[in-house]
Structures are given as structure tokens and as C-alpha cells.
Amino acid sequence: MMINEFMERVNAIDNKIKVTNAQYETIEMVYTFYPGMGNKDDTAEMYVKFGIIIFNDMLPRAKAFADIQTQIQRNKMELELIKNTEKELYK
């Protein structure tokens, strides 16, 4: 979700609320990686109700999940390389 899309959803609930780029970076990280995070509308509603503080509180876990996803991707790539090496040995 882009910042302008997020702001449209926020402004549909309360058009007086503003979000800085730095705040949006936090919101985007939480929206993308926090486990069990709702949809775009839920995220906007959560921001309107609770502000940036809830996203700041959720950020460490979201970052941990992002790191895990990166590690999983690396391991999948490494596994694929190992499988390809194994296939070469059969030739």
C-alpha cells in the first residue's frame, strides 16, 4: 500500500489526520510483516483510533518477522543451489 492510498483510507474516516513519511515507513513495515495484521482498511482504522504509538509498539515484532522472511528466502535459494549441485553429480 502506498502512502497516498493509506491517506485516502485514513481521510475517509477522519480528514484532519496527517501522516509523515517517517510514520508511514513504520506503518508500512507493520502492515506488511506483522503476523495477523488486518487488511488496508483495518490498518487505517487502527491508525485513526490509536495513532502511531501502536505501530511503534508493533514494529519490533514486524522487523523480526521481516528478518525471518529474508532468512527463509536465503535458505530456499541455498537449498536450490545444493539440489542443483546434487543433480550435476548424477550426470
Instruction: Compute the CA-based radius of gyration.
Output: 19 Å
Low-confidence stretches at least 5 residues in length (pLDDT < 50)? none
Mean pLDDT across the residues is 95
**Count the helices. How many?**
4
**SSE class:** mainly alpha
Beta-strand residue fraction: under 5%
Largest sheet: none
What letter string, H or E per element, gives the SSE order? HHHH
Instruction: Count the beta strands.
Output: 0
**Shape type:** elongated
Number of individual domains: 1
**Terminal-residue CA separation:** 47 Å
Residue share in helix: over 70%
What can you see in these coordinates?
This protein has one domain (3-90). The N and C termini lie far apart (47 Å). With 91 residues, it is mainly α. The chain has helices at residues 3-13, 21-33, 40-50, 52-90. Helices cover 81% and strands 0% of the residues.
Topology:
Layout: H1 3-13, H2 21-33, H3 40-50, H4 52-90
Condensed summary:
By secondary structure, this protein is mainly α. Helices cover 81% and strands 0% of the residues. The protein has one domain (3-90).
Identify the notable features of this structure and list them briefly.
mainly alpha, 0% strand, 91 residues
